[in-house]
Amino acid sequence: MCKPNVDVYHTNDRLKIEKFLQTNELIISKDTNWLGSGMYFWDNLSNAKYWKDEKLRKNETTDIKIIKGKIFLEKLLDLTDEETVRYIDGIWSFISKFSEIQKMKIEKAELGRKLDVIFDFYKALSSQEFNYNVIKCLGSYRKNLMESLDLFSESNLTISNKIIYSVKENTCISKFEIINEGGKSE
Fold first, then answer.
1. pTM of the entire structure?
2. Containing H/E element for 86?
3. Among candidates 183, 179, 168, which has minimal Cα distance to 73?
4. Disulfide check for 79: which of 75, 95, 126, 137 has CB 3.0–4.6 Å away?
5. 88, 79 Cβ separation under 8 angstroms
6. Interior CA angle at 109 toward 104 and 110, to 5°?
């Protein structure tokens, strides 16, 4: 039987990419705004190229590589689904009442910090009830190219929303390789 999976892309410094390919150790983002700690992936090459350009623009590094591989979605926390979002919001409402959480003063904090607290809470309980290792969301970027394209000028379609995955464990990743700008293996 085939596991549910998706092809994904990641952009990062060449040395970090090479270490990831050798050790399978996730390149953990310290993000607090989007989806918290995890390794971030996009569902298409254009988004990976966008982040490569952003890293170059911000002078984070000059030697950047893009990798392509698979992530398994058996334990997916899908924040593109309204019911799931309401479920997670209810969990946050419950957890945020604990005095330890209130001391952290994160009731108005970024989503990523809140998600990290939720994951840490269930991990401390060793709970199988909250057993996710990938988070999926739609991120809204400012630029919508489709408005300027004649074919899409009168449509409701947008590409300003991007599918983003945050992987929490390396057990759900497979078959990564460095690719070139055209999407082919290097």
1. 0.88
2. helix 82-95
3. 168
4. 137
5. yes
6. 135
